[in-house]
Design goal:
The protein is elongated. The chain contains 19 helices and 8 strands. The strands form 3 sheets. The chain has a 4-stranded antiparallel beta sheet. It has a two-stranded antiparallel ribbon with strand order 1-2. Strands 7-8 form a two-stranded antiparallel sheet. It is an alpha+beta fold and 447 residues long. 46% of the residues lie in helices and 9% in strands.
Length: 447
């Protein structure tokens, strides 16, 4: 064992001894002496315990690893390490973790056994789904937890990772019992219950200037460390619980999958491809898991707060729908380095802006964001409105079967009614008129 590993092991053993009983100085010193096999505690142990009690007035029963790291920063520890031979733990005590505090009503998960009960799995299955051995990167498809799909985009690719059924169900339980009780920022609208594209774009309707920006490789850019910090912080989970849940909701791209992705020809696209590969190679939020949108919104809380404050300082408004940032206000948003300030805040929060998708539009032109035109009120672009009206009229007049035109006949009815519902979600008045037209269609023979 190297000296570094030995020191880490000693700190972990002392941390367990400190947390294994009453948080009183005499008892703590005695437990450390027993752990080290000492008949009587040396003076450096008392000094170290005093520093621990100063830093932690109450026992950090939820964070034994943090306590172990803190021990190695104390002066008492340094004095102990200077002795020959350095102290080593000979009697190990495994102190159970517990919830030290709860800011939000998340599930009561004091340890990994409670997580296994919540997910209805045993300890071995929990470790397997959390990929504790880091196998996802190298194993073949049958042993992977995700099914990967590459989606071509104009300036690169997007990798979708769909969790397999059992992991997906486990993630859904984490979403319901751990993530859902934690509130997101008011500016976040994507994948938030009670919010929608309409709520995201409505605040920007009728604005003199509309500024759109996009976060590059959004989900891939949220690394496991940030997820773990969220679970330790706002969620208030103990370290072992936060560690295993982080493993359940993050993943890495398999080497075989990434090697099969073609490298773009353009120089700028190649550089973006390289950055994406670096992010995907470390544990990150998979785009396709049910937990990823909620975790991304929670991780972005401080980003949303800062950007909302920045927009307010310029007399503007701000909303975010997943990775789409929208600002609106007067002409100050189109000058005075506003976009540069946004990019600086985004970079400071660990994200990156995609310059190719930054655009500012005045009221003299069509202001379109998230598929909606917002010059006056949220609605569909005129061409789409006219096309949808014509489609409904033709389906009612000439029969739906003659309007399929490349669509799957078995799903054509759902396709048409889905477009009507989308239009109604943006513009209820227009949607009501479309519903009248749709009611005239005879869907006989449709699936």
């Amino acid at each position: 064992m190297t000296s570094e590993r030995q020191a880490a092991g000693t700190a972990a053993g002392i941390s367990g001894a400190l947390l294994a009983g009453p948080w009183r100085r005499r008892d703590m010193v005695r437990r450390v002496a027993v752990a080290l096999g000492q008949a009587r505690a040396q003076t450096w142990v008392g000094a170290m315990v005093g520093e621990v009690q100063t830093a932690y007035p109450r026992p950090p029963v939820d964070r034994p690893r943090e306590l172990a790291r803190f021990l190695r920063t104390t002066q008492g520890w340094a004095r102990g390490q200077a002795t020959i031979p350095p102290p080593r733990v000979v009697h190990w005590t495994q102190a159970p973790t517990a919830l030290a505090w709860q800011r939000y009503p998340v599930a009561d998960l004091p340890d990994q056994a409670a997580v296994a009960r919540l997910l209805d799995v045993d300890a071995g299955e929990l470790a397997w789904f959390a990929d504790s051995r880091g196998l996802e990167r190298t194993v073949g498809e049958p042993l992977r937890h995700y099914r990967w799909r590459v989606v071509e985009r104009p300036h690169g690719v997007r990798l979708l990772a769909a969790p397999k059924p059992r992991l997906k169900e486990a993630q859904r339980r984490v979403l319901r019992h751990v993530l859902a009780p934690i509130p997101v920022h008011d500016a976040a609208h994507g994948c938030v219950p009670g919010r929608s594209v309409r709520t995201a774009v409505a605040p920007h309707a009728g604005s003199p200037v509309l500024l759109r920006m996009d976060l590059e490789a959004f989900f891939a850019g949220i690394a496991a460390e940030r997820v773990r910090g969220l679970l330790l912080g706002p969620a208030g989970l103990p370290e072992p619980v936060a560690h295993v849940i982080t493993g359940l909701v993050t993943t890495v791209v398999p080497v075989e999958v990434w090697r099969g992705v073609a490298v773009p020809a353009a120089v700028a696209d190649r550089e973006r491809h390289r950055r994406l590969g670096q992010r995907l190679a470390v544990p990150h939020l998979p785009q396709g898991a049910p937990t990823s949108p909620a975790l991304a919104n929670l991780v972005c809380f401080r980003l949303d707060r800062r950007l909302a404050g920045l927009a307010g300082a310029f007399g503007g408004r701000y909303t975010r729908y997943v990775d789409d940032l929208t600002f609106s206000g007067d002409r100050r948003l189109a000058r005075d380095r506003f976009a540069e300030l946004v990019a600086e805040v985004v970079a400071d929060e660990g994200f990156g802006v995609n310059p190719a998708k930054t655009s500012a539009t005045t009221a003299a032109r069509r202001q379109q964001v998230l598929g909606a035109v917002v010059n006056v009120a949220p609605t569909l672009p005129r061409r789409e409105r006219d096309a949808l009206r014509a489609l409904l009229h033709n389906c009612a007049t000439h029969g739906w079967a003659g309007q399929v035109r490349g669509h799957d006949p078995a799903r054509f009815r759902d396709h048409v009614l889905g477009r009507v519902a989308w239009a109604a979600s943006l513009d209820p008045a227009f949607g009501a008129r479309l519903a009248v037209l749709a009611a005239r269609i005879d869907w006989s023979g449709a699936a």
